[in-house]
Design a protein that fits this description.
There is one protein chain. The chain is an alpha/beta fold and 360 residues long. It has twelve helices and twelve strands. It has helices spanning 12-25, 65-74, 89-94, 96-118, 161-180, 202-211, 231-244, 261-275, 309-315, 323-336, 338-346, 350-356; strands at residues 2-7, 29-35, 55-59, 79-82, 130-136, 184-189, 191-193, 216-219, 225-230, 250-253, 258-260, 291-294. A seven-stranded parallel beta sheet has the order 3-2-1-4-5-6-10, sandwiched between helices. It has a three-stranded mixed beta sheet with strand order 7-9-11. The longest helix has 23 residues, at 96-118. 43% of the residues are buried.
Length: 360
């Protein structure tokens, strides 16, 4: 049984990845989920696996070298999938030191612990071991509105403390691959959306606010462009890179779904109105009149767009979920999981760990 160490598995993308892996492999794999359970980590995302013998949750900070070393010492780890990161640009502008601590130092700890566990006396590494570092397209900076794409060869040009910290972590992984021939890959993905996304991010924020008749904030002129990727497609890409990717390579993972922020908001409003029953009082609240333009974010990148040509050519992955379909699936999930959203927005989800693990 192959053992996966997933960092940040209680977060948005990490928990979706764990769901995907258990749907695909079931009892054939074991997953150890290490998460510090900061504000965006939510164990309710994974409650269906709590009784599974091949799933283990460990509350630990990736910056804690002693705790991470113990995980490797006590388990035969075959694969590391490293999601754990501070990821919200606005928070990074307010408090950049936390981003440097988690994203840079935490990645260094993960690399050192994996290297120590997997390295053989001659400096080579045990067969079949692999470290996958999950990163972002934001490390490449900003594109012009009228064309161009991010490729794996695009020079790094981060413009926020968040993207600078992720670029730094990417460089550490690249250095380990070059210096030690450490068995790793890097994936740089575009904006994800889907179930379990914390409502500080654009799409769940707009869904939640619109259903409550609250203002829908739009930075600047609303014309900033992002490439949107349904989170399940991303999970599939990560698995395929782990299985088929060439060692030491970087793969860009994009959704082929470029949209302006204002366009996203109008699509969500339209879709909500189509999906809400006529007798649902929330339908009357959902309106474009809620759109409110606010002062633009500092250093707000104008456009991101990823070219996933390499991953399609080498591995055969391509996005399967077009944006309108993904939005409908995301909204339907929020309709079916209103208690989850209420818990997250109230902070009650943080009580879940205390209740589930109070005797540990």
């Amino acid at each position: 049984m192959r053992t996966y160490l997933v960092t940040g598995g209680a977060g948005f993308i990490g928990s979706n990845y764990i769901h995907y892996m258990f749907r695909k492999y079931g009892s054939q794999i074991r997953i150890i989920n290490v998460d510090a359970l900061t504000y965006a980590g939510n164990l309710e995302n994974l409650k269906e696996f709590e009784s599974w013998e091949n799933y283990t949750f460990l509350k630990a900070d990736i910056c804690d070298k002693e705790a991470i070393s113990a995980v490797f010492a006590e388990n035969e780890i075959d694969r590391v999938v490293h999601f754990a990161a501070e990821s919200h640009v606005d928070r990074s502008i307010r408090n950049p030191e936390i981003f440097v601590q988690t994203n840079v130092l935490g990645t260094a700890v993960m690399l050192n612990c994996a290297k120590a566990a997997w390295e053989l006396p001659d400096g080579s590494f045990q067969e079949g071991k692999k470290f996958l570092h999950v990163s972002t397209d934001e490390v490449y900076g900003s594109l012009e509105e009228d064309g161009g794409y991010f490729y794996e060869t695009t020079p790094y040009a981060p413009r926020s403390p968040y993207s600078a910290s992720k670029a730094s972590s990417d460089m550490l992984v690249k250095a380990y691959m070059d210096t030690y021939h450490f068995p790793a890959n890097i994936t740089n993905c575009s904006n994800n959306y889907g179930p379990y996304q914390f409502p500080e991010k654009l799409i769940p924020l707009i869904i939640n606010n619109a259903l409550q008749g609250k203002k829908l904030p739009v930075y600047g002129d609303g014309r900033n462009v992002r490439d949107w990727l349904y989170v399940e497609d991303h999970a599939k890409a990560i698995d395929m890179v782990q299985e088929q990717g060439r060692l030491f390579e970087t793969y860009n993972v994009g959704g082929h779904n470029e949209k302006q922020n204002i366009e996203i908001i109008k699509i969500i409003i339209k879709t909500l109105r189509e999906m809400l029953p006529e007798d649902d009082p929330r339908k009357a609240l959902v309106s474009e009149d809620l759109i409110t333009y606010v002062e633009d974010r500092k250093g707000h990148d104008r456009r991101y767009a990823i070219a996933p040509d390499k991953i399609r050519k080498e591995i055969g992955w391509e996005p399967e979920t077009m944006f309108e379909e993904g939005i409908r699936r995301t909204i339907q999930w929020f309709f079916e999981n209103e208690a989850w959203m209420k818990n997250v927005t109230s902070g009650d989800y943080q009580k879940y760990y205390a209740e589930m693990y109070k005797d540990e």
